[in-house]
What does this fold into?
Amino acid sequence: MASEVRYEVLDGLRGAAAVGVMIFHFSIIGLPLAPHGYLAVDFFFVLSGFVLSHAYAARLDAMPLVDFMRLRLIRMLPLSVLGLSIGSLYFLVRFYTQNYSQYSVFDIVGGTVFNTALLPKPWSSPAPTDTIFTTNTPLWSLSLEILMNLVWAAFFYKARSWILLIVALVSALAIYAFALENGSADLGATWPTYPGGLARAGFGFFIGVVLWRYRPEPDKGGFLPEIAAVLLIAVLFVPDAGPLFDVFAILFLLPAIIYLAAGSDYRKERALFRAAGGLSYPLYAIHVPMLHFMVGSVKILHMENRPVFVAVLAALLCTGTAYALDRLYDRPIRRVLTRALASDRPRPST
It folds into this structure.
């Protein structure tokens, strides 16, 4: 059965993409290294459509929509809530120790209330970089991902592929227009760019569904894993090349990477790939709040002139914490919540 296939190479690339996002956000500590790291989000959107189709397409007929959404929230909320808690703590500590923050206490607390439910903050603030996820900006993509999950499971999981391609085409045209207007495809984290983020999520997710429907048989030979990895790294680390590169990468390169990786059966490194896949979501959920705390620590310790050392330390702390959270926090909580969901289901009468 298709669901018995395990796409280890996709696990490994998911981990690499999460590291790419973290390195992109090293700009927080004054060391921008991955100019297109934000395109990892588009990789995640395509991957989500592919992986969810693989896991649930054959099960949704027998699964109530509410159960599917509960499972998706069980997957996302433990880490997103933790990341928000760390981020909110940082902004509150900064506000009360420095008597300054780009956000008011209302923005911090009120925004966190909405963001905890993976809902964007519904108001704008006068902050210089006002984002819809006030204290942990990257979670905007999770909000749109859960929206795509809902739309797909409610209306599109049995839709013909040509319908999904129409949705993707409309989204692609919107990405092109918004990227040219914005100067890049780094869209979605703020209210002015939110429509562009919605287009990114719509294109990526539904292209991922189509790719799964026409997925290749995994092949043990060849160099597909290496080619996919090199392409992904090149996309994330290529110097700034303008909005047309972003559009080309989103519409063609990233789906091609997913397709190449899906056609790979790379048995030699399965444990490594699974470990990389396991740390990807914890790393994505907590790295920005941790980097914010590191910025404060760097200033206190007067280490502003050692950005490379700080970046290496940040990478070690973030990845180590993410690995520990995957094993000691996220997996145990999800097991408990999944068992609780199963026990809540009505039992058939005898």
